[in-house]
Amino acid sequence: ILVILGILFLGVALWLSYFMSKRAMIPIRKSFDRQREFVADASHELRTPLSILNSSLDVVEMEDGDQLSDYSRKVLRNMKDEVKRMTHLVSDLLTLARSDSGVPELKLDSFDLVPSAIQLVGSAQTLANSKEIKLNLQTPESLIVNGDHDRLKQLIYILLDNAIKYTPSGGEVDLTLTKEQIEKQSALHITVKDTGLGIPEEDQERIFDRFYRVDKNRSRQMGGTGLGLAIAKWIVNAHHGTIEVSSIPGEGSTFSVNIPVYDVEEV
Ligand code: ADP
Q: What is its EC number (predicted)?
């Protein structure tokens, strides 16, 4: 009888502590939800005044550009750069706040990733040319994947942009896309390799954290927000994939993404 009573007592105590801890979590969860909503709402509200500021600066530049002194023109240029940086930051914050609350869901689609990769390399070419960086793309003729088209483009853009930003003039950046078939399932591999600054080993895990930057000043000068890789990681996780970095300081970095892409019928 004593043993049965003991087991009963233990069961009730365990159930009570589980119940109490669940109840205690409710206000904490609510407070997190409120914080997420606040960041999402604030970012959303900031977009309109920022786009008005941007177009007003364009108007001033177009209408009065010739009459401005060199100094005023320089101030105007700085203002435009800062507005652009802030717009980028606000849009990154909004993406992360929405991803925290599970919104938006991925829009799964079946598409060829190769034309998008060619287009992304084309857009990155201007920045690469300005630093005399050689940009190489290796892909099969076509690469049909199932995933969120816009998000996968955003992921490649973030990795390419970083590779060019953190590679000194005269370097090289390779974007490689491949697809590997393992039984019924295929895996998409995206590799972005650069010959840039590299990332010290102790920082390699933390670069995927929000606002983590190895060198704050350098990132800011490059127009970085410190949120790019956090967004990249979220996109990869949402596709049930993995992202890894291997890097040797002074020699370069390689970011490797693996994403399972299912046969069309299974999506
Ligand atoms: P940022 O906007 O600062 O580039 P990210 O989240 O994209 O933010 O990257 C975080 C940090 O990781 C960067 O500030 C930089 O220090 C480092 N980093 C990212 N990609 C590279 C790369 N290809 N080479 C060297 N450092 C990199």
A: 2.7.13.3
